[in-house]
Amino acid sequence: MYYFFTMANLRVPGPTPLLPKVLSSLSQQMISHRGKGYEKVHAEVVSGLQYFYQTKNPIYLLTASGTAGLETAVVNFFSPGDTVVFFTCGEFGNRWSEIARSFKLNVTQVKFDEGTRVRKEVVKKTLSGMKNVAGVFITHNETGTGVLNNIFEITPIVKAHPSKPLLLVDSVSALGGVNLPMDKLGVDVLVSASQKAWMASPGMAMVAVSPYAWEKHQKSTMPRYYFDLTKYEKFAQKNQTPATPAVSVLYSLQSALELMKKEGREKVFKRHIDLRDYFRGEVKKLGLKLVVDDKDASPTVTSIYPPQGVDEKVWRDLLKSKYNQILAGGMGGLKGKIVRVAHMGSAVKSDLEQVLVAFRKSLKEL
Ligand SMILES: Cc1ncc(COP(=O)(O)O)c(C=O)c1O
Predict the structure, then answer these.
(1) Which entry of 83, 153, 270, 292 is 20 to 30 Å from 141 by CA?
(2) Is 53 in the pocket of ligand 1 (CB under 6 A)?
(3) Which domain holds residue 174?
(4) Four-point Cα dihedral 298, 299, 300, 306, nearest 10
(5) What confidence tens digit (pLDDT) does each residue in 254-270 have?
(6) Which of 89, 92, 253, when mutated, tests ligand 1's pocket best, judged by the most ligand atoms within 8 Å of its CB?
(7) CB 50 near ligand 1, within 6 Å
(8) Can you tell me the distance from the alpha carbon of 108 to that of 315, in angstroms, rounded to the nearest whole number?
(9) Chain segment 87-143, per-residue pLDDT in tens
């Protein structure tokens, strides 16, 4: 059994491990980002992303992390003073609302307890009492707890609001591995990032924009420069970016998307659901308590309480030093209280079997 533990098992919710083919794509020589070679890579990446976003909308490639994608969504479609609503259930929702406050949007934030999902009844009630709502923001997969929000049931409520707000979704830690059909649902702005379920290296934020959001963009007076999508749109016409892109990250994304397409979109989604169900089932058998109910559970990350009397940090340190399992701790109100295990991107059952064997052994020792 110990053969498992000879190599590090990186199970943090991004960056995720790279498959050998993706890893070797990173060793390609640099090319001019104003040449035909680059344009081909760019076009292939955008079309691969569109397949997984299930959209015909343009997807802009920003050399930056996921947080920059969130900022891009805040600064491109609104003007200072606009009223926007955030439905949040954890640290990444909090972060997005902080960005909006920094840019002087008039923010209403409706917070749900960490570990529970945003409830549609509350969305309905909140919006029905508001006028002139310019945007509604929601985190698809709250990575801080491992909650998957149900965008399918929330979208129609937002779309039915008389002020016709934009719906902006952070799917940094789900898209690629979880079904979220942008066009079918009518999501207006959809943000993701390369290092999560896309099983590519960190450094690229990807932002898809609907025609309705583009209309709003043209009226927005928010200050911006690097993240100004007008510039990205102009260069996207040539399959380029306004400034030098992280070419190596695009190589890795191109290669990962090729593998994901080969596996098949539905199969990738099913693999993530199967991994979640398998892992949660086995964790329960060990007598450990899960943070999130089955019905709200994320297909890409699972949070677990340590057994009573066991310090989370001590447990995680032991899992790392003796068993080579690299897991994440809690964030915000759950810092020091939970352990998070990611099963996104290239993850397969044996990755989680390792974690489970390490759990069993380490708990005996503790
Ligand atoms: C849901 C969500 N949003 C935003 C981010 C921020 O992404 P980054 O760390 O790439 O800036 C993360 C990162 O974990 C995330 O999980």
Answers:
(1) 83
(2) no
(3) 20-261
(4) 60
(5) 999 999 999 999 999 99
(6) 92
(7) no
(8) 38
(9) 999 999 999 999 999 999 999 999 999 999 999 999 999 999 999 999 999 999 999
